[in-house]
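note to self: dont lose this again. the chain is below, predicted strucutre after it. 334 aa total, dont forget to put it in the shared folder this time
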Amino acid sequence: MRLAVLLWRLLLDAPTLLWRLLLDAPTSLRRGLTLANLVGNIVIVVTGGAVRLTGSGLGCPTWPRCTEDSYTTTRAMGVHGVIEFGNRMLTFVLVLIAGAALLAAWRHARLRPLALAVVLGIPGQGVVGGFTVLSDLNPYVVGLHFLLSIAMVGGSYALWQRTLDPAPAAPATARLRPLTWAVVAAGAVALAVGVVVTGSGPHAGDEQARRTGLDPAMISQLHVDTVFLLLGLAVATWFAARAVAAPALTRRAAILLGVLLGQGAIGFVQYFTGLPEILVGAHMLGACLLWVAALGTVWATGFDAAPRGDGDAVTGSAPTVSSADSVPPLVTVR
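---
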């Protein structure tokens, strides 16, 4: 009897205990939650792609309900309804992860705004996803849905990086920051053009969904051109990082090059083999990894590094560091 009472009290106190645990989360837990949030945002991009690639985009033909009379899928909707409804349910899992990350970040001034933005972005994305259904999978709305997902991945990556609290980069490395921002800009353009390629090809998510009507071959060539631009900038970043002895940036640039080459190989193979679903899905995953790798080059230059003395401060604003303290004096030898 006492054991039952104890278990019952623990059950009643569990929400309060969990709340306190997250608010006072150690650094390792906070980092783990933000990393899980990043992974979750990438996973839901891939599962959303699976909905489209299986022709289940209108498995639930309306929104926010699955059918006119039910919020859940019905037997009449078949496997497509199960796939679409399952993807909708993953949104709630992502909300739980992001919410836990928000609580763990709440007492940390540098983390709180970004963690809150990530949480609020999830229902916003859900609304855009609803419009994709209500528009009968309009390719432009579907493309916007994907690009907003990429933005969520970027925000989640930034939040995770802030929990790692990297030290400010050396001045020589920081001078390469404009080059890394060019890498990110080229990556964003390549992703945006890739979305247009998708909207002009097959795999619309439903047999009745319309396409953009653009020439797939022409748009694909434009996409390849943007990828080659990104490749050139990535190579330049790698050489520049080696020239100024910036090991962290050299490593990030090498990772970006590896992801680019793998993504390019998948892209060429899928194009010349008729766009098989499994390769298209792998290409979507590669797009997320490419975006993360591109952002990683910027963070390797000390972008968004916490000011010295801030550490893991939980309240208030971080103390500022003067340029004289943060940059060692330069001595010119003639």
